[in-house]
Specification:
Number of helices: 4
Structural class: alpha+beta
Strand content: 5-15%
Radius of gyration: 18 Å
Order of helices and strands: EEHHEHH
Length: about 120
């Protein structure tokens, strides 16, 4: 019998400086990944952040939570990211890139250590 090849809708919390955090998708499904590639080809700003980001603990100028959720239209989420400081954007981008690289390495390792198709699990 085959294995499940559907991306699990999981979220991961990643720490930021100052005690803040971001919640991101653990792994992009094929549709989200394709949308990311198209957005990057179209040179849409913040494409990778928008593909992964689910929420955060950031606050705005009034010290109230800065709204960010997948319920908001993409242009509103993009405008919210545009309003961040350059340093915050850089940190956000770096933490998401590290997360993506880590998940890719884990997936590669899992493929390399997976038992070949048709191999018996009993000795």
């Amino acid at each position: 019998m085959g294995r499940c090849r559907v991306a699990q809708p999981e979220m991961v919390r990643l720490p930021l400086s100052g005690g803040d955090f971001v919640d991101v998708q653990k792994e992009l499904n094929a549709g989200d990944y394709f949308d990311l590639l198209v957005a990057m080809a179209d040179r849409k700003p913040f494409a990778k952040i928008i593909a992964y980001l689910v929420g955060w603990s950031l606050v705005g100028l009034n010290d109230q939570p800065l709204p960010y959720s997948l319920d908001l239209p993409e242009n509103v989420r993009r405008d919210t990211i545009r309003s961040l400081t350059k340093a915050t954007y850089s940190e956000l981008s770096a933490v998401i890139n590290r997360h993506e690289q880590s998940e890719d390495r884990a997936a590669d390792l899992k493929k390399k250590t997976a038992e070949p198709v048709g191999a018996s699990s009993s000795s």
